[in-house]
Each structure stands twice: as C-alpha cells, then as structure tokens.
Amino acid sequence: MRRFLDRLYDAAGALAAFFIFAIFVVMLGAAAARELGLRSGGTDDLVSWMTAAAAFLGMAHTFRHGDFVRVGLFLEAMPAGRRRVFELFSLTVAALFIGYLLWSVALYLYNGWLYQEMSTGLLVVPMWIPQISFLIGVGLLFMAVLDEWFTVLRGEKPRYVTEVEARHARGDFSEDV
Predict the structure, then answer these.
(1) Do 129 and 113 meet the contact criterion of CB atoms below 8 Å apart?
(2) Whether the predicted pLDDT of 174 surpasses 70
(3) pTM score
(4) CB of 136 within 8 A of CB of 58?
C-alpha cells in the first residue's frame, strides 16, 4: 500500500508539472498566433483551468515532501513526546478542514453536473470537466494528511519531516529561504 500511495502522490505531482508546462506551451502558442495575425480564442479559459489543475494536483506531493506551509517552527522547538501530540493535533485539524473542503467540492461538482452547468467563456464545456482536478487534488491531499496522521500515530516520523531532514543532510537549504 505504501508504494502505491507514494506512486499516486508522485503521479499527481508529475501531472501538475505537466499542466505547468502545458500553460507555457499554450501561452507561447497564443503569443505566436497573435504575432502571425491569427485568432487564439479560448486560451484564457484553458490557462485558467490548467492553473487550477496544476495547483490542486500538486498539493499532496508538495505536502509529502515537506514543501507545504506547516507549523514546523513551533513543533521543532518541542521535546519529542510533546511534539508528537501537537503533530497529531495539527494533522487532525488539517484533516478535518480538508475533509470538509473535499465534501464541499464534491457536492459543488455534483450539483454542477446535475444542473448541467456550462462554462461561459469561448470554450463551452460542462464545468465539472475542468473542475474535476480540484476534487482529485483535494482528495489526494486529504489522503496524504490521513496517511501522515497514521504515521505519527504509530510513533514514526512523518514523511515531510524526513524529506526535509534528508535535504538538509545533503546541504540543500533552498526551500528554507
């Protein structure tokens, strides 16, 4: 199960990177089309949907690798026993909020699908199609937080801590700047 989850988070991160590259390609294509006097309608719609996809699909991967904003400064100053309690508390609060967000997004998308909500830009598509990346990204983040919650509950170090420690051991402090 561990290998499957790690691959799932990595695949979501790779898909987020793909969408960032796709934004680059679409923006360059639109700029080239304008220079050649060609129409490039709908690029704003595509870029906005791809930006949301890149942001939300990358969250679980970012969280697992310790690149997410956390309460680390507060927790690092605590002794190990107390740190574990506060780490569990922090992850519990995060899981509750993200779980509520997941439920809300799922309900929102379901209603959009049920009432056949369509986009209003130049590219007219059912809104649930570009918004599904939001649901998938939040779902993966929820899974990653629960995954870490169980890790801390077992008394192990969370992955986001071990990833940061490994980076620091290599002399890489770039994420701390």
Answers:
(1) no
(2) no
(3) 0.85
(4) no
